[in-house]
């Protein structure tokens, strides 16, 4: 996918995680072909000792005239000790947000095309 940037923070680089992100980004950009860029930041911040080390994946999805940011930290979700689950959840949320924007844009363009005839 063109325009994909992947960064790792507080964790070593993983080819497997990078490949997983590339696949999900490719799927997202093929679903919504007006995506101009995707920036993914994978982090394993130092959390409180009783919660373990939970993965954090944030995304910025570039659309014409707009950037969608997915930064929700799942600090209370123990499933996010698994990096793949964190990546999956971030891309699912990105897909929902981008779909919502597409529906809003389609609705605006549909309404702009309507001509109201005064009686």
TrEMBL record:
Lineage, uppermost ranks: Bacteria, Pseudomonadati, Pseudomonadota, Gammaproteobacteria, Oceanospirillales
SUPFAM superfamilies membership: Ribosome binding protein Y (YfiA homologue)
Pfam family, any one: Ribosomal_S30AE
Record-given protein name: Ribosomal subunit interface protein
């Amino acid at each position: 996918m063109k325009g994909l940037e992947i960064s790792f923070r507080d964790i070593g680089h993983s080819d497997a995680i990078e490949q997983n992100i590339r696949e999900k980004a490719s799927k997202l950009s093929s679903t919504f072909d007006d995506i101009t860029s995707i920036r993914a930041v994978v982090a394993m911040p130092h959390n409180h000792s009783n919660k373990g080390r939970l993965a954090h994946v944030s995304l910025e999805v570039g659309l014409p005239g707009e950037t969608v940011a997915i930064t929700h930290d799942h600090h209370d979700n123990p499933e996010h000790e698994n990096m793949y689950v964190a990546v999956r959840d971030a891309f699912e949320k990105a897909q929902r947000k981008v779909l919502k924007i597409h529906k809003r844009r389609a609705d605006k363009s549909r309404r702009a095309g309507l001509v109201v005839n005064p009686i």
